[in-house]
Amino acid sequence: MPTADVKFNYRETGNAYYLSEQQRARIKQLSRSWVWRLELPTWALIGVIYTGWFTCVIYWQQLGAVMGSVLLILLSAWYMSLQHELIHGHPTRWRWVNQLLGTLPLAVWYPYIFYRDSHIQHHRDENLTHPEKDPECYYYTAEQWLYFTPLFKIIVRVSNTFIGRVTLGVVLDIIDTIRCAIRAFIAGNRPAIIMWLTHFGLLGLLFHWMAGYGISAILYILVISFPALSLTKVRSFFEHRAAENSAARSTLNEAAWPWRLLFLNLNYHLVHHDLPALPWYGLRQIYLENRVQYQQRSEQFVVSGYTQWFEAFAFTALEIEIHPFYDSEKKTLSEQARHDVIDGADRHSESV
């Protein structure tokens, strides 16, 4: 019988949904192992990423621009995956320690706190893909779409292709982030202003330090951080879809190991949303142990790898424009009520 928990292992990441009491017991058993309790894989990851990134900058001249850029792109994208893990309460139970480990702006664009607060809001699964409540949503309400210019509608459709998402989609994200910063300063939002000033200050120090090794700020932004952000867009390209069953909104991407390592197993995205506090090194194991159940739970929202997305949508747009059933707040509430009834019926049937 499925069960739900508000917390898992004292992590502040929202509800945990277990497929069964047996799965809950299995995860509890795994969490007692010394590797999991000490969070050794995550500490090792932190060491590798930081050591690798700073080493590449220090030895930039010896590595050469091409090799150095490739390595820094991969390490910066990997760092963004690490930041996501820190947001979800790893490797420590202390928020300030995890924040300290993820605040350095190696990837340039997002302050850690900005990303953290937005992402935690995204984990309210009842609002997944909601155009006005999910900050990581690509859908729009009918009212929003009505007022868009023809040019912007074309931009949206282009950004819903695979090629468009990893190029134009990155530009749109950066513009949106800059707008958020400007709004914070205009509104006089003191906590947000402090966050942005800290971010810009650390970024300035990093750029000054890198310049001493021959890496200019412009070079780093255009040649390294932009492609790194593009890599993260590969993972999130079709990570969520509009579906009446909230469990069917998150994908299961059976990607190859290099992608799994780069994205820290977030390709098993439904498992992550069901168990947001599960560490990255447990996601694949839990998925494989319950593969059939998770694929059924996702209503077969399953992908064989990122190549499948590229082949299907390289220049063909996903049908992600007007959300099919979040047209208005009134309708949203009626849909949520219906979901609660369906979910309750499903749980009852599985317990019989």
From TrEMBL:
<keyword id="KW-0472">Membrane</keyword>
<keyword id="KW-1133">Transmembrane helix</keyword>
<protein>
    <submittedName>
        <fullName>Fatty acid desaturase</fullName>
    </submittedName>
</protein>
<dbReference type="Pfam" id="PF00487">
    <property type="entry name" value="FA_desaturase"/>
</dbReference>
<keyword id="KW-0812">Transmembrane</keyword>
<feature type="transmembrane region" description="Helical">
    <location>
        <begin position="59"/>
        <end position="82"/>
    </location>
</feature>
<dbReference type="InterPro" id="IPR005804">
    <property type="entry name" value="FA_desaturase_dom"/>
</dbReference>
<feature type="transmembrane region" description="Helical">
    <location>
        <begin position="213"/>
        <end position="231"/>
    </location>
</feature>
<feature type="transmembrane region" description="Helical">
    <location>
        <begin position="94"/>
        <end position="115"/>
    </location>
</feature>
<feature type="domain" description="Fatty acid desaturase">
    <location>
        <begin position="66"/>
        <end position="294"/>
    </location>
</feature>
<feature type="transmembrane region" description="Helical">
    <location>
        <begin position="34"/>
        <end position="53"/>
    </location>
</feature>
